[in-house]
Amino acid sequence: MIDSHCHLADEVFDADLDAVIDRARAAGLERALVILAAGDPEEAARAARVEAMWPDVRFAIGVHPHAAQSFAGDPGRAADVVRAQLDATPSARAIGEIGLDYHYDFAPRAVQHDVFRVQVRLARERRLPIVVHTREADQDTIAILREEGGGEVAGVLHCFTGTPELRDAGLALGLHVSLAGIITFPKAQELRDTARAVPLDRLLAETDSPFLAPVPHRGKRNEPAHVGRIVEALAALHQIDAGELGRRTVANFHTLFRP
């Protein structure tokens, strides 16, 4: 199995990182994609420690929409910061997480748009996939991906909780769809129904740890070892063996991120 999206370089894992990685390996994880905030030297230092302990991890680097305000007036600098950190991180395989978030609106929407756009352009320039965060901003997210990516930028709609319309628009652009622990929540039947229609060759599993721990770990700190619960839930939806679903998502990860 592979955890296609986690924040393993977050400071919440500092005290027991070795045990967290041991549990991930014991659970059968081949690797994980660790998400890094561009321009955060402390997190970058923690990422080096993660990689030293688990050399098979890979990284995605980007400016999250929550941080877009830092680049108001000069969105191009966001791309410059990401570009520099990509160059300094040989194990980086993607740009992300990037996108739009209208739930919190920590940055003005116009600023979010500009910062998202320049990073999609950078992905196109570098021929790298993107990890997309979209919350209550589906139409604008898809519009920018169409305008800037033109269907030529690969990527994933991460921690998918969206509508069938978002699913179909993302798939039409060639994107993958990644499900997290929410898929296991009792009240998430609508999401399960939507996820059931994602083709097996476009499906990924993630923890988004330390957030969104799946049942039966809900309410606790999440970690990569728990990705198995998401794989089991997705296997049940698609009515196939969990081992087979795990192999499919691993193959999809390799196709997308070329680790």
Task: Describe, in plain words, how this protein is organized in 3D.
The protein is an alpha/beta fold and about 260 residues long. The chain has a single domain, classed as Metal-dependent hydrolases (TIM Barrel, Alpha-Beta Barrel), CATH 3.20.20. The chain is about 40% helix and about 15% strand. The chain has nine helices and eight strands. The chain has an eight-stranded parallel sheet with strand order 1-2-3-4-5-6-7-8. α3 crosses α4 (about 110-125).
Residues in helices, as a percent range: 40-55%
* Count of individual beta strands: 8
Q: Please identify which CATH superfamily we are dealing with.
A: Metal-dependent hydrolases
Q: Shape, please?
A: globular
Total tally of structural domains = 1
- Give the strand order of the largest sheet, numbering strands 1, 2, ... along the chain: 1-2-3-4-5-6-7-8
How many helical stretches?
A: 9
* Annotated CATH topology: TIM Barrel
Question: Class by helix and strand content?
Answer: alpha/beta
Q: What Rg do the Cα atoms give?
A: 17 Å
CATH uppermost class? Alpha Beta
Uncertain stretches: none
Write the layout of secondary structure elements.
Layout: E1 2-6, H1 17-26, E2 31-37, H2 41-53, E3 58-62, H3 76-87, E4 92-101, H4 109-126, E5 130-135, H5 138-149, E6 155-157, H6 164-172, E7 176-179, H7 189-196, E8 203-205, H8 227-238, H9 242-257
Parallel strand pairs: 1-2, 2-3, 3-4, 4-5, 5-6, 6-7, 7-8
Helix pairs in contact: 3-4, 4-5, 8-9
